[in-house]
Amino acid sequence: MSIYEKWKEIAFEERDEASANKFWKDYCEIEKGIYEAILHNKEEIIQGSIKELADKYKVEPTYFMGFLDGINESIYETIQLEELTEISTIDLRIDFEKLYYNMHEAKAHWLYNLQEWDNILTEDRRKEIKKEYNLSKTVVREIKIGRNEPCICGSEKKYKKCCGK
């Protein structure tokens, strides 16, 4: 069983609601610690084996795989998580703006509110990214053509008699 499969098994095993809440609360604290270290040190590039990196961030390799699962969409070149073992070497280059955006997407307020972001992105840039995220979730209604308005094809007929049939 790959380390990624172990992560999925641990993360998504059937539990009662209280156990699930405890698991995710504990995992979010672990994840927060990893991000605090990365942001504090402005680590744009993360290199090493899964085991070495898990030791560096003081987590189990399986939980480090959970971190990789979460950050995989915020790096310049995604990695095939299913193929990784503890001795696999990875070379991640983090896109911090995309990461900040994706943290909003995941509603991970415990991550996008970290004070360590001050070292990475200006407050104005963080506000812009949040605004971009909010705009991406805004539904824009298309302009509705009335039945009796001129047809959009330019035929000068009413829409209901032309393209609206």
Radius of gyration: 23 Å
What shape does the CA trace take?
Answer: elongated
Uncertain regions spanning at least 5 consecutive residues: none
What percent of residues adopt helix (DSSP H or I)? 40-55%
Helix and strand pattern:
HHEHHEHHH
Strand order of the largest sheet: 1-2
- What is the terminal-to-terminal distance? 58 Å
Q: Please state the structural category.
A: mainly alpha
Q: Tell me about the biggest sheet?
A: 2 strands, antiparallel
Q: What is the mean predicted local confidence, pLDDT?
A: 93
Number of strands: 2
How large a portion of the residues is in β-strands, by DSSP E?
5-15%
The total count of helices amounts to: 7
Topology:
Elements: H1 3-12, H2 17-40, E1 45-49, H3 50-56, H4 61-71, E2 89-93, H5 96-105, H6 109-112, H7 123-136
Antiparallel strand pairs: 1-2
Helix pairs in contact: 1-4, 2-4, 3-4, 5-7
Written account of the structure:
With 165 residues, the protein is mainly alpha-helical. The protein has a domain at 3-95. It is built from seven helices and two strands. It has helices at residues 3-12, 17-40, 50-56, 61-71, 96-105, 109-112, 123-136; strands at 45-49, 89-93. Strands 1-2 form a two-stranded antiparallel ribbon. Helix 5 (96-105) crosses helix 7. The radius of gyration is 23 Å and the shape is elongated. It starts with a helix and ends in a 29-residue tail after the last helix.
Brief summary:
The protein has 165 residues and is mostly helical.
